[in-house]
């Protein structure tokens, strides 16, 4: 800002706060645009006798990245930079392109989408053609936040100003329509862009997005037909395309058709992937076809794919629901043998046993696993207790803790913190405070998050 002001009368180097106060004086003047404050901003700057630089010079924006980093102050500085940009463009000057682009990015990250869009428009008004990356970033962020109509209007306006839509931008629109809007509208957009010759050529990613949208809406038959028609559009379906259809078929229990599709996946681009096997195993397990799921798991490993926790968790989850402890131990044993670290999905599956009143069975599974692997069971204990407490099942969590302590397990601060948090979730604040006091008396303090939970 200092670089713009040569002499000031009657104020000397007005602060941003002074300028914002002055702007407010004009906010109630009738017939002003929605951004009325920037009119006041312009008047204040105009009244300070600024020496105007040549029209073709590049003007720098006020630096919004310096100063305190709390959200409120950062928002104020972002708004100052935005109003400064408006002033510069209205006076016919060109802003620094790198700064204007960064301002657009930062406004998007702060969810100020209207101002970010206006920055793009002002950049064009100043005679600068924005780079494709910033344009696509803005469209993508609008679509992610559900502002599909606004994004489509922006694309049309940008095209009118010589910024043609590319395939990446088009894919953002299609994905946004599939996720937040209307799938039929997405298909209409595809047809429109093709007829107008806009957006470059849709690529396979575009069609895979549409396939996902059809399957998400339960329109499996249409998705299959769309999938079969891809070669006529000049594209051969890849493994992603196949996985989209496969997931939909498996969810509906259409196993014969799923097997036929897998049999078709024999070319290099369509060879089954880890995702393919995980889809099959997860769907089979959820439908209770555990033996078949184990067969696919064996086939997967013969194909040299490394299983992950996501591979085993659906099987473990179903076995826990059926209370088949021996098979759960076998599956966990195999999981650890293949160096698959358990995750929240694994702990959630075992927690189901405790929720169903089978705490002793869950305890025996964890103990058996620890004995077989000759390894610590602390992670499993902590994970299961945390899972129970997050879902408000604190009583079975305490039952499991009792079994653990009887077997020699010493709870750590993380475990106690989970229990205290669980009590708070269930509204049992007195009990949570009592545990906290007992722990303090014994010089054993849970981590800080427990105190925050009780306070809230």
Automatic annotation (TrEMBL):
Give the superkingdom in one word.
Eukaryota
Q: What ranges cover the PPR repeats?
A: 131-165, 166-200, 203-237, 238-272, 273-307, 308-342, 377-411, 412-446
Task: List UniProt keywords, sorted A-Z.
Answer: Repeat
Q: Does the keyword Repeat apply?
A: yes
> InterPro entries annotated for this entry?
PPR_rpt, TPR-like_helical_dom_sf
Tell me which Pfam families the record gives: PPR_2 (PF13041)
Family indicated by similarity: Belongs to the PPR family. P subfamily.
Name of the protein described by the UniProt record:
Pentacotripeptide-repeat region of PRORP domain-containing protein
